[in-house]
Amino acid sequence: MNPDPADAPFALLLTHDVDRPYKTYQSLYYGLTGKGTASRRYHLSTLRPGVNPYWQFGNLMALEDDLGVRSAFYFLTEQSLFEDRPVREWFTMEGWQLYAGRYDLRTDDRVRNVVHRLDDGGWEVGLHGSYETCRDRERLRAEKNLVEAVLGDEIVGGRQHYLNLEIPQTWEYYRDIGLSYDASLGSSHSYEFDDGYGVVRPFDDEFVVFPLTAMEQAFPDPGRDYERARSAVDGMLEEAAENRAVASVLFHPRHFAPRDFPNYWRLYEHLVREALDAGAWVGPPGDFYEAADLAEPGSEWE
What we know:
About 35% of the residues lie in helices and about 10% in strands. The chain has about 300 residues and is α/β, with parallel strands linked by helices. Strands 1, 2, 3, 4, 5, 6, 7, 8 and 9 form a 9-stranded parallel β-sheet that branches. Strand 3, helix 7 (about 135-150) and strand 4 (about 155-160) form a beta-alpha-beta unit. The radius of gyration is 19 Å and the shape is globular. About 45% of the residues are buried.
């Protein structure tokens, strides 16, 4: 059970962006660029029907349940490359990167069922705004409405795909469509508190921003040097404790596939256990927003 935020030495917010629950085209990229011959071979060998190591929802829920924590899962409502995008984008690397191999919340029963399992189990379900919504309020609103329609309840926050932000415009959109927080501010290459130790309140009202402290890929690769990766995690947590920080981390579900991304599972478990042992408040941003009374400006966590 989490301590009262007022008594916690720091907070650790756990989040997962649901980009690619199915292993498809991206395996070609990982297979060609992955570190180590065995890793490259494995990425390519599992690119075949009936093999999907990226579907890690059950394993991840079981791990967090064993640890006694919950997290947030942000679901993406992305356009289809071949159905929604211009033909010219079919032949670009960016088009394939952004719009190919996605899932569709409207029709994918497996993903829809996961949304309900997460919600029933106490996990937070939120919005992963698609790439162009940082400049398109109505598309962002439509994506929020779809997630809520699948969930059967309101959501309170989310994060932009690829951390794509227009500041402060995107945050104005989040507030305008009824969201309480955004978790997009940050970098995919740093595990430092680059945007401060507390929450950000851009409009001096109830809307807050939880800066991203670390994405899993920013840490040293635990598959190559686990001890170095663990040391980086420990250093981040020590800095959080020294500054009574709100640390926010992002681990994509696919990184829990043990052979595709060795030791990320182990690193995540170490991160959570160390934070719990330190007495931190650990959980999803939506729960922390409520527990710490962040709807009222002037919080001690700012």
